[in-house]
Amino acid sequence: MHRKAIFAAGLLTISVTACGSAEQPEVVEQIVVREPGSPQVVAAEASATVAGAVDLFAVGEDAFQSCTGCHSVDPDGRSASGPNLYGVMGREAGSLDGYSYSDAFAASEIVWDEASLDGFLADPTGYIPGSEMMAGAVPDGEARKAIIAYLSAQTDNAPGQ
Ligand code: HEC
After folding, report:
1. What are 2-31's pLDDT values in tens digits?
2. Distance from Cα 144 to the centre of ligand 1, integer Å
3. Which of helix, strand or coil describes residue 98?
């Protein structure tokens, strides 16, 4: 291995000297980076693995920033222009005391679970016609999944709390 490197360096010195081209140093870089088992290759593989392990909760927390203009997940229960969403998983739609829902919400018999939240967030006014949630639709299925994972953890019943 060591010998090979010296040999390659020697060859390059010769070719650089031979043609005197300014482009030759690029070749040196290619040889070093692509050498199998080199630290550069190992580092690139490791960071690809880390990026592949997606943390749904963190992605959901991030995506939920588009909801915080209207919703809080504070355990204090206070609502903003939209109802407080702390403990929303398992709650009946339109049932938070002290929040004034649309008639459509109040009359719906939906219980929030993964499937109903997914349907509602994909199309709030289509899922509950008459809903007053005029913004906050999440067309991307992966983003909905992440937001739902995040909301599921906003409760005192979450595992580990
Ligand atoms: C423009 C303000 C606004 C935005 C932005 C918004 N919402 Fe809403 N949301 C509302 C309102 C208002 C209601 C109540 C609708 C009604 O009474 O018809 C509601 C209701 C809900 C409900 C039902 C809660 C219950 O108590 O039944 C959920 C769940 C919800 N929103 C989730 C979200 C999520 C997740 C986002 C972000 C992706 C979001 N909302 C973005 C205003 C908003």
Report:
1. 444 444 444 444 444 444 444 544 444 444
2. 13
3. coil
